[in-house]
């Protein structure tokens, strides 16, 4: 689910030393450049300024380390996990057990590489996903990527459920017209 030789623990230490929760890390090769995506969180949420602070610290560390961790050209992205939060570890799957997720696998499971459904962790540490087609179980190591799916709660009122402005007036006018006849 992430770069094999990239120093994840060093990045974790940098993020946590600045007072943030380290969520995860992705290192991917796209076109002619590498992308390093660092996800972090905080109780009060993450601001652009928070991302800037962490990005500068990580960038400085990458430059100072002198190791050839990445190609000459790379992009560092630091962000909050967002509503469709990526799931990286067994702890993430435990924390969000009962929530809907979208999972991409590196091997077929019952003829599928993509599985969407409600996630949980079985007693043996396997990831379990249940959906309308049944239950699927596989080890964490088979997951290429996983993220929560944002689901709008049905009981919450939205603007479209509210009466539109002017509705009362039209109804009053209609009553007045009926009384006039």
Overview of this structure, please?
- It is a single chain.
- The protein has 2 domains: 72 residues, RimP-like superfamily, N-terminal (GMP Synthetase, Chain A, domain 3), CATH 3.30.300; 59 residues, SH3 type barrels, CATH 2.30.30.
- By secondary structure, the chain is α+β, with helices and mostly antiparallel strands.
Summarize the structure.
It is found in: Cytoplasm. Residues 87-148 form the Ribosome maturation factor RimP C-terminal domain. The chain is built from four helices and eight strands.
Predict the CATH topology of the largest domain: GMP Synthetase, Chain A, domain 3
Order of helices and strands: HEEHEHEEEEEH
Give the CATH level 1 class of the largest domain. Alpha Beta
CATH superfamily of the largest domain: RimP-like superfamily, N-terminal
Based on DSSP secondary structure assignment, what is the total number of beta strands? 8
Strand order of the largest sheet: 7-6-5-4-8
| Computed structural class | alpha+beta
Radius of gyration: 24 Å
Described by its quaternary structure, the protein is: single chain
Strand composition percent: 25-35%
Low-confidence stretches: none
Percent of residues in helices comes to 25-40%
Mean pLDDT: 84
Number of helices: 4
The coarse silhouette is globular
CATH architecture of the largest domain: 2-Layer Sandwich
Largest sheet: 5 strands, antiparallel
Q: In the residues, how many domains can be counted?
A: 2
Distance between the termini: 73 Å
